[in-house]
Design brief:
The protein has 524 residues and is an alpha/beta fold. The chain is built from 16 helices and 22 strands. Bound molecules: nicotinamide-adenine-dinucleotide and (2R)-2-hydroxypentanedioic acid (2HG). The site of nicotinamide-adenine-dinucleotide has 34 residues, from helix 4 and helix 6. Catalyzes the reversible oxidation of 3-phospho-D-glycerate to 3-phosphonooxypyruvate, the first step of the phosphorylated L-serine biosynthesis pathway. Also catalyzes the reversible oxidation of 2-hydroxyglutarate to 2-oxoglutarate.
């Protein structure tokens, strides 16, 4: 008998297959009300209200699987769950349409001032001249983040006669053309859009994406919408733009803190809000509940789960054999994705030497997951990487070769972008670790660990000293430095390993050194 704790409001109809199973005992209670029996549960089902913290996991030693009836898993400590061998599953597309429709409802309500007019009429007023709005027809809609929800919003906007201007650094031209939208830089979208809606995950890169500087680049009279995650639009930074009338109105479904309490934004008449309702429809809740219920049944029946976001389905035996290459693959993908931070169509992986005799499918999936990790909202791992790549129009393939470049094993990854191709090669040396031995056409040798800095420059005397001086001036300590070049006096590169990450100011100072062409931060 498996015990399942359902701690948030999840559609009962969707959970019906679980309730019908004689093998499963379902308990519907908040975590706080189940304190005494937490240790007895095998599975935990949540939406976004329950915070699945490390502390909670400590109290649930029997837990084997966590199901999130929705997309974002930011309320679950996935790392802590993974460490404990707990599988985390979600329902990545069950609420896409509802979230897109809610965004659109907010957009219409915002430009036609529907919530304000509603309150006025309910207060027994009849003040038609106070609520003159704008049409959506003919307006330019800026969409930042063009994944599942962003692309559904675009379809609806086109039906309303709007032109759609998209910023998504990972969107390919092919996919944009198929969906009838144009791709632009962030600055272009900010400058032209009458209405801007954000649909990215909340990551280090997107936190505060619409902050003081970028808000200043928007058109006077712009409308803003956030139905993705609180914090993508910086709430504090918005206040002066609302006070001086630069921003005509804001619609928020999500907040940096939920509930937002007595937030200063709530005092503005032209800020309209909902309490995180994007996924709150009968249909979406049925979809997400059905998806997680089916996955839970598979899991308990010992069948593979398809929407797991943390664990690969590997036997212990296979895992032990491929473990080292699995980690190397992940790092090759992660570094390549950051280096090629542009849309890509294809990844090609070549295995040579001892690694070519192993279960390379898992290594490729690990590499793919590493590559996709900086680009997608939900956590991506070996189990869902292939599906996520397909959704994003990225193909991948494996090849086998005898060319080991003198190493016992070698994994080579070539990434094909729109106008650029990049190759990285790595090897694993038992009892020593992983080494990157080839990077963008140059033979080099460095460990893919920690905070790395890539510098491409012309091969001139004194370059190392100049770089060292700039980093020294910013109090950044260099742990290791590797140099390589194609030919004397030609294209050369340095890979530095630093004791701490560097910010944009340091990158800009380095880029100003004569003969330095590119500087990039790479985290491994
Ligand atoms: N309000 C709600 O109830 C609700 C419901 C569902 C989803 N969501 C949230 O909506 C957001 C989008 O969900 P989705 O299912 O469309 O995710 P998705 O992964 O399909 O799409 C996210 C897109 O953002 C892009 N992106 C990543 N980093 C970016 C950056 N720095 N700049 C611009 N684009 C970037 C990715 O390339 C991707 O195309 C998530 O934050 C999700 O948690 C909210
Ligand atoms: O469960 C909810 O209502 C929120 C869902 C949404 O934010 C998600 O990320 O799927």
């Amino acid at each position: 008998m498996f015990r399942v704790l359902v701690s948030d409001a999840i559609s009962e109809e969707g959970l019906a297959p679980l309730c019908a199973s004689a093998q499963i005992d379902i308990v519907q209670k908040k975590v706080s009300e189940a304190e005494e029996e937490l240790h007895t549960f095998d599975a935990l089902l949540v939406r976004s209200a329950t915070k699945v913290t490390e502390e909670l996991l400590e109290k649930m030693p029997n837990l084997k699987i966590i199901g999130r009836a929705g997309v974002g898993v930011d309320n679950i400590d996935v790392e802590a769950a993974t460490k404990r061998g707990i599988v985390v599953i979600n329902a990545p597309n069950g609420n896409t349409i509802s979230a897109a429709e809610h965004t659109f409802a907010m957009m219409a309500a915002l430009v036609r001032r529907i919530p304000q007019a509603h309150i006025s009429v309910k207060s027994r007023e009849w003040n038609r001249s106070a609520f003159v709005g704008n049409e959506l027809f003919g307006k330019k809609l800026g969409i930042i983040g063009f994944g599942r929800i962003g692309s559904e919003v675009a379809k609806r906007a086109r039906a309303f006669g709007m032109s759609v201007h998209v910023y998504d650094p990972f969107l390919t031209k092919d996919r944009a053309e198929k969906l009838g939208v144009s791709i632009h830089s962030l600055d272009e979208v900010l400058a032209v859009a009458d209405i801007i809606t954000v649909h990215t995950p909340l990551t280090k890169e997107t936190k505060g994406l619409l902050g003081k500087d970028n808000l200043a680049k928007t058109k006077k009279g712009v409308y803003l919408i956030n139905c993705a995650r609180g914090g993508i639009i910086d709430e504090q930074a918005l206040i002066p733009f609302l006070e001086n009338g630069h921003v005509a109105g804001v619609a928020l479904d999500v907040f940096e803190q939920e509930p937002p309490g007595d937030h200063p934004l709530l005092a503005f008449d032209n800020v309209i809000v909902t309490p995180h309702l994007g996924a709150s429809t009968v249909e979406a809740q049925l979809n997400v509940a059905t998806q997680v219920a089916e996955e839970l049944l598979h899991f308990f029946e010992g069948r593979p789960v398809t929407s797991s976001i943390n664990l690969p389905a590997l036997s212990k035996d296979v895992y032990e054999k491929i473990q080292a290459f699995y980690h190397l693959g992940r790092k090759l993908g992660l570094i390549a994705s950051q280096f090629m931070n542009i849309p890509v169509q294809e990844l090609s992986v070549t295995y040579a030497g001892t690694v070519a005799d192993l279960e390379t499918t898992y290594i490729t999936r690990s590499l793919l997951a590493g590559f996709l990790r900086p680009r997608v909202a939900s956590t991506v791992n070996e189990v869902n990487a292939a599906m996520v790549a397909k959704e994003r129009g990225i193909t991948y393939g494996e090849k086998f070769s005898d060319e080991t470049h003198g190493y016992a094993n070698c994994i080579s990854l070539t990434v094909h972008g729109e106008n650029k191709t990049f190759t990285i090669k790595g090897t694993h040396v038992p009892n020593y670790g992983d080494r990157i031995v080839h990077f963008d056409g140059v033979a080099i040798d460095f460990a893919p660990e920690g905070h790395l800095l890539y510098i491409q420059h012309q091969d001139r005397p004194g370059m190392i000293g100049k770089v060292g001086n700039v980093l020294g001036a910013y109090d950044v300590n260099i742990a290791t430095m590797q140099v390589g070049r194609q030919e004397a006096g030609g294209k050369a590169m340095m890979i530095l390993s630093l004791d701490k990450p560097v910010d944009d100011e340091v990158l800009q100072a380095l880029a100003q050194i004569d003969d330095i062409e590119t500087v990039k931060r790479l985290e491994a």
